[in-house]
Every structure is written in structure tokens, then in C-alpha cells.
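User: Show me a protein chain along with its predicted structure.
Assistant: Here is one chain, sequence first, then C-alpha cells.
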Amino acid sequence: MLRHTLCITLQTIMIDTIGDLTVSVYLCVFRTAGAVFGEGFRAFVSDWDKVTATVAGLTLLAVGVYSARNATAVAGRYIEARLGKPSLVRETSRITVAEAIKHPIKMSKRLTSKPQDALEGVVLSPNLEERVRDIAIATRNTRQNKGLYRNILMYGPPGTGKTLFAKKLAVHSGMDYAIMTGGDVAPMGREGVTAMHKVFDWANTSRRGLLLFVDEADAFLRKRSTEKISEELRATLNAFLYRTGEQSNKFMMVLASNQPEQFDWAINDRIDEIVNFALPGPDERERLVRLYFDRYVLEPATGGRQRMKLAQFDYGKKCSDIAKRAEGMSGREISKLGVAWQAAAYSSEDGVLTEAMIDARVDEAMRQHLQKMDWLHGHTKEAGAKSTISPSAGPADSSKIGFTLPLGEPPQAQDVLTPALEMDNKPEAHVIQEELKLEVPDPPSSDGAELPVEEGTVPAKGEGVKAETVVTPQGEVAEGVSQTDAAPSSEGGTGKEGKTKAPPKDGTPV
């Protein structure tokens, strides 16, 4: 037991000794390091050349870091403006680095492609086709002669070919195109102004010229005076107006809208050409039906590489019949009808598209189209009923239509006084009728006594007396003559002036 206690005591003494030695070693090291650093710092401070060299080196290092950071930012913005794509641009034909890496074959084909017809694959009415063809020719010649581009507004129902024509116009003219939508501007908030400036900075760097197509432009180019828009959206609109205040030879602005009446007046002032894309007529519908029937039915069925076959029937007659039934449908709806025929063939057991299947798809498409029109008209009626003014003399069913009846304008002073002045200048006699409050005697009773008259009674129709003042060309004036009650005498005179006798009760004429 004693031996065990002695061992524990010796171990404790050794641990304490080792701990004291470790602390002493550490203190010695710290003193030596402090002395070395102190001597070095004193030597450095005492040598002015070393201090100057050190300060100059640190300054150059800071300048180098700051310059490198800003140069990188400038280079990034330059690359973004030249080769990148702004965040507001959804689709563009300009070659970007990312697109070139992802699709090298597509980029090479685009570089070697030739200008195409502006109306290739676009079905329009003859008048509209002639007009947009003139616009395409003028745009192409403007680019070749480095002139100023004209801004265009295309409006009309959805699916009538506005976006398709804008792309074809850019390709035909040899320009790049960029598509942005107005719905992307409002969610950007405070970043909208910066993003809008980036779009136009990027557009100005195009060497071929850029066609900037703004789809659904009324989403952010709304009236600033009447519409309730946020301050951020108002600032973005002002930035857009600032960048489009003058015509440019770098970019061409094309706006598309279904509700152009909502544009701000400053936007209307920047538009040079207005084109209405209406719904296709009978001839255009038949051309569209044949176009999409060939694209989605005949070509896949005759190609032999797809699971699709076509039954035997008169294709031309069927297309004509479908065009007559598809009245009121847009070009996009007709194209979806072609896709529906293709889907019907793919969903069948044998992959054969029959005439009955085509008719069924057409009936379903027409039913859906009528349902959409019912929704549209119902919404229009509800919106119009709130602003309808129902005049007392208006039609009984005017409030059901949903439009505001125009109020008549009050007559102007000159409209009232001019006829009167013209009558005064005429030499012919004129008659001025005045209502005279004349006392009308009560009809006598059968015994000659006067009947009592209750207070507040009104004379019967025909008992009132109107006096006339007749002015003759010679200046003679005849007053108090009743034209209706006074009978001319045999001597050319008149009866009693100013009073008339009521007929007696026995019916004896006066």
C-alpha cells in the first residue's frame, strides 16, 4: 500500500515539473519572437527607402485590383451587349455565344441563308397582302440604303398572323428580329428601367439592323393619365418613350396589340403605319385549311415514316366544306384544327384518319369556338352594362346590348339666333304669337243665369284664346284677333276682339 502511494506521488511531481518546463519554453519563444519582430520593425521604420517602396507597392496593388474588377464589369457588359441577350428579349435571331455552342449547325445555316419572301406561309386577304408587301419592300430598301426605319402598329384579334408576319418581315429584309412581350415588364419593378435601356443599347449594336417586335404591347404602354399604373411601370414607360422619341437607322419597332385604344397618346405619336389584321374571309379560310391539311395530314401520311394513314375521299371538297363551316375562326384556330386531325389519327387503333373522324374534330372545334365567343360576348355585355346610360326616350332593349347611347349636344347660341335674325331682315309680314291670359266667360245656363265656376278649374280644350299681332308691310298693326275663334264679317272686319263665346248647352251654334 505504501509502495503504491509513493508511485502516485512521484507521478504527480513529474507532471508538475513538465508543465512548468513547457510554460517556460513557450514564454522564451514568445520573448525571442517579439524581440526579433521588434528589431525588424524598428529597422524598417528607420529606413525611409523601405517605407516608400512598401507604400508604393500596396498602392499599386489596390489600383490593380480595382481596375481589374471594373475592367471585368465593362468587358462583361460589352460582351452582353454584343453577344448576349437582354432579359426582356424572349426570342431573337441574333447569334449569341450560348446559341452558337448549343446549336452550331443551326447557326451555320442561319449565316448562309438567303432572304425569303415576306409572305411565305402567311395567308392574308388581297388588300392586306398588298399593303404588307409594300411595307416589306420599303423596309428592305431602307436597310440597304441605311435610311430611317418606320414604326408599325399591328392590331386585330388573336391568331391572325401578326407575330408570324413580323418574323417574315425581318428575314425578308435581312434584319435580325427580337421578340419581347409587354407582360414581362411590369413584374420587374424597379429593375424595369435598367432592363429597358439594356434592350435598346443591345438593339443599337446590331450591324444588320434589328426589328424589335413587342407583343401584347398594351400591357405596359397604357395611358398614364387614366390608367392606374405603378410608379415603377410609369418610369419604365417613360424610359421607353425616351428611347423611341426619334426614328432610328439601327432598329425598327413593331407593336402588336388586341386593344390599341389603351395606348398612351405619346405611343400613338411614335407610330408611322397602322395595319389591321382581321379574321380571315371565306377564301382565306379555304387556303388556310388546305395549307394545314397538307402540312399535318398529307405530308405525314405520304412520308411513310410515321404511324399515320389517310382514308380515300375527296380531299379538296372536304377542305372547301370545312372552310365554310369554320366561319369566324382565326388562323391559329385552323392550325390547331390540323393538329387535332393528326392527333386523331395517332390515337386510332390502325392509325387511319377517316372522313368521319375529321368531321367529328371539326364539330368539336366549332363547339369550343362558339363557347369562347359566348364567354367573350358575355363579358362584354357585363362590362358595357355598367357604363350604359338608359335614356327615358331610348329603345327598350338598349341596355341589353351593352353600349353607351350618345347624348345629344345642347344647341349653340348662333344656331338659335341666326334664323330669327334672318326673319327680321325679310320684307314679308311675320307673325309673332303670344299667349294672352284672357278672361273666358262661363257658358250661360238654359235660363240665362250664370253657372258658378269652382276655383282652380281649367277651361276645356278649344276654349283657350290666343291673340295675334299682325304686322303688315305698310306698317299697320292689328292686335287681339283670334285666328281660330273670330269669324270675318261681311265688311271684311272681324268679330269681337279678345273674347269668345262658348256654345250653349243645347248645341245651338254661335
